[in-house]
Design goal:
The chain is mainly alpha-helical. About 50% of the residues lie in helices and about 5% in strands. The longest helix has 23 residues. The N and C termini lie far apart (about 45 Å).
Length: about 270
């Protein structure tokens, strides 16, 4: 095994269950609401939530837009049924169409994709508020460090249980917990448009991305990371530059300091 490959600690599953129980169970909350996409991240988060809270405290929501494959929808609903959780399907096509008709000059597909992510989160928060539940995010460490999420979309959540797991660790935990192979082997995608995949947009396979990020986490120089992983130096540098360029997505909005103590600067909760 490559020495920079992040391994999955043996206590991971129990730690994440304890985390969810402490933050999303009574008296803190009455459970969680999360989006189910058919992908490995949301499937793993749903399974962990069921293990920690019980199926009656987990609501899974499918939020398809036009072009969402019917076979994937059926598979995702079947997985929710297997978990024994309540699930709903809320098609966002009409909502997105109304939004685009109000702003017909929006044509860039990334802009539209970000809008879809925010519509999804708005829906999840509306459902969560009615049930006194928290919105469970499904982002992983690889995505967070690369800024591969939408501000106030999939990045705007209450809890991120797998936010400290690289994508390859997510896959390892999913295998450990026996998630269906169809889910574990599916190419990761945000589902914003037909044929869209995470790795194509990121420009690097997750197995290589995680090795590079793990090297950055250990404060290794780009040259050393490239030497120890076999990943081209230009790719290592591009990944490192993206970590720096997306810092703003992992921080609270900057606030101009006027008073004695300022939120996000020197206010202590």
């Amino acid at each position: 095994m490559n020495p920079l490959t992040p391994r999955l600690p043996s206590h991971t599953a129990s730690t994440l269950r304890q985390f969810l129980s402490a933050h999303a169970g009574p008296p803190a909350a009455e459970g969680v609401v999360l989006g189910l996409s058919g992908g490995i991240d949301s499937a793993l988060c749903a399974r962990l939530a069921v293990d920690a809270l019980g199926p009656d405290r987990v609501l899974g929501v499918l939020l398809p837009v036009d072009g969402f494959p019917e076979a994937l929808r059926q598979e995702t609903e079947a997985y929710a049924h297997t978990l024994g959780i309540e699930h709903r399907v809320v098609p966002l096509g009409p909502t997105l169409a109304a939004f685009r008709s109000a702003l017909p000059d929006l044509t860039d597909r990334t802009t539209v994709g970000n809008s879809v992510a925010r519509l999804r989160m708005m829906t999840l928060y509306a459902l969560a508020r009615e049930r006194r539940r928290l919105v469970l995010g499904t982002g992983n460490k690889s995505e967070l460090l690369q800024g591969y999420f939408t501000k106030f979309g999939d990045g705007g959540v209450d809890l991120l249980p797998i936010g400290d797991l690289y994508k390859t660790q997510v896959r390892a935990l999913a295998a450990e917990l026996g998630l269906p192979s169809a889910i574990r082997e599916r190419a990761p995608s945000a589902g914003f448009w037909e044929g869209q995949t995470d790795e194509e947009e990121l420009g690097v396979a997750y197995v290589d991305l995680d090795r590079v990020l793990y090297g950055i986490e250990q404060l290794l120089r780009p040259e050393e990371i490239a030497d120890r992983t076999g990943v081209p130096l230009e790719t290592v540098r591009a990944v490192a530059e993206r970590v720096l360029a997306t810092r703003h997505k992992r921080r609270l909005p900057p606030i101009a300091k006027v008073g004695l103590r300022t939120v996000g600067l020197d206010w202590r909760e």
